[in-house]
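Troubleshooting entry. Yesterday's outputs looked truncated, so today I'm pasting the complete records for two proteins to confirm everything comes through intact. If either block looks cut off, that's the bug. Protein one:
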Amino acid sequence: ATFVGVRDKESIATFVTNGFCSWNKALERFSSHEKFSVHRAASQSISAFEKGEHVGSLMLAGKECDMQHARISLLKIITLLQFLAAQGLAFRGHTDENLNFVKLLRLRSEDLCTFVQESLYYALIIDETADSSVKEQVSISFRIVKDDFSVEELFFGFYETPLTNANTLFSIVKDVLLQFNFDIRNCRGQCYDGASNVSGVLSGVQARVKHEEPRAVYVHCMAHSSNLPVWNFLSLMRELIGFIRSSPKRLASFETLQEMEAPAAQRLRPFCPTRWCLRATSLRSVASNYGTLMTFLEEIDSTNSSDTGTKANGFVTQLRKFETFFILHLVLLILERVELVNTSLQRASLHFQEAQRMIFSLNETIQQLRNNGFEDLWKETSAEAEQLDLEEPCLPRVRKVSTRIEGGSSAHVFATPMDVHRKLFYQIFYHVTRSLDLRFESDVQNHLTQMEQFVTGSEMIKVEQVTDFYADDLDKQRLKLHRVMFLDIALQKNRVFSVEDVVSFLKTKGNEHLRTVLPEYSKFIRILLIVPISSCTAERSFSSLRRVKNYLRTSMGQMRLNNVAVLNVIVVVEVMNIGCIFSGFIHSLCKSMGSWLEKRMCKLSAGT
């Protein structure tokens, strides 16, 4: 049966029942009539009549078509279940949306390159590491912002390189852009760690990219920035943990002793090379097992006369010092707060302005801890040190200062051990706060802060400051007009204070049309969101590299490594086009085995 509406009934009356008579408007009426379902149904009926097709046969053919589609779908579902079962993977997840089964069923045909090209503008994220075969691998990722302001960081692969100097890395960047047909003139951001080969202001990769495209804003990885100031304090703890965990025999002996002395204490955790949030966990494991560690190391020292015993003796000597215990708790006090921010900085969707506010809050927290935290820390560590029978805090030996160095002035003499550690407390906090200030006070920060002020309606920032920097990216008059229009609309409902507020407003249901109505303003927001905050996407790819290229796969070629790594890093595997893979495999196989096999495979594929 054909379901018709009011307009369809009028069309039936005009063209079937009464007959058409408005010949002065014939072309207009015929064009509109073609759109109605009545006309389409009549066309299909006359076509079937001319072909001599029976209604019953048409229904049977439709049923067979439905059965074929259902069979294909069922085959895919069964193969997915077979894959999950063979690999020992869970069918279920934390939520229905995270089911492995559902994720595999959502394989889509989009291409990574298409994502970047459709976004037009992109940011570059690079980091390097050595794989299990001691080859240097450069991880390349791109950050894009879609029309709905959703941010994605896409991993594109590893690139083996014998050298990691700036010239070699920049050549890799140019080769990658050429390979994927990305224009360097569309690069609007870049993020690397603090190594001079990439961050150098004169000849680093960031300087070379900015020479090609001045609008490619460089940001030092903020997750690295906030972590570097405290990293030097952790070397002793890292070596101590490595000493125990590097030997299965020592680790088993320590865990046995731990079960007897402190069964409730957490296991000794390693320092993860790519995940910052685990480092505070490692320090907490040392602090909770402090007494057990000393007992274990003393046993090794007394029973082993080799280098192992000597190392154990050195560790015991350091652990028995009150200064080591005090610094451990002080660094843990700082690092726990830093790690909270680091965890947030690893989000791919994070934008610069939001990250800047996180760093500002971290700085304020550390300053407050510096001003008010010493007395509590001293009391806590002194009480615990007494329980552990550690050495009492003591005054350092007074050294005579050479007259050639200090001009004959005498060295400062502390009155009490508490004063010595108070100075140490302030020194560590000074280096932490100073490092944070140096890392995050830069021309880039000032520039992006001014851009945010312009977005939120500050009269201090003129539109010329924006368009002078971004040049032909933005039209000055349209941007100025669209900003005024947006602020007029937004201020009627809510006050916007940041780029985050603007994005939230434009993504709110009922306001989506503003992206189209105010295209220049929306484009400017996307450009600001493109600037990356951290290179954590590259760090995550290193974790995948260790899983994919393990000891048994050190002979894996670079092409296969890239293919497997991309599939592994892109967790939802949404870039696979199964149909293209299927057709491409058949085509390549048929070319090598002849036309007969090509016909046979096509018949088999049609049958499934």
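Protein two, checking that the full record survives here as well:
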Amino acid sequence: MKQSALVILISLLIAAVLLASGCTGVQQSETPPTPTPTETIVPATTTAPATPAVTPSHTEDEMVAFVKEAVAFANEEGKAAALAEFSDPNGSFTRGDLYIYAYDFNGTTIAHPINPEMIGVNRLDEADVSGDLYIKELRDVALNGSGFVYFHYVDPAQNMTVRPKLGYVEKVDETWWLGSGIYGVEEAGRD
């Protein structure tokens, strides 16, 4: 009986020491969190949206170079190897929110690392939130070689939020084209 009372007493003393030293298992931050450099604090009294401002993580030049790199890869490695690489979310052509997508000229998705469920789906008549037939627009630009198109699409770096996107596309050959896009760029001022 004395032994069990001693064990209980020691356990209570250890618990008291832990509680007195602040070891309750709940940590509290001493400083408030600071916003990241891409966030903007909006006062509650304004009518501005409460979403953080996001700056582009890649430039137009980087995007164009990325697409040209992918076209060169497709020409060197062949269509099958290229499509497998472009569809791999962990592949060399998926770099955060910058990734390669590919379509045939009928509008069917043939590679997409972010939305693999779209592979094999004809999206030519798919409209974005503005009502633009963006796949058709991208395809039409690719038919002429290469170029830019503005549209709206989900941003994997922003919890799949639909955001304005600048796409750049380039024809690989007479049967298919590929492209990429960057978020956080403004359409205004672009020819």
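Both blocks look complete. Sanity check on protein two: The two ends are 90 Å apart (CA to CA).
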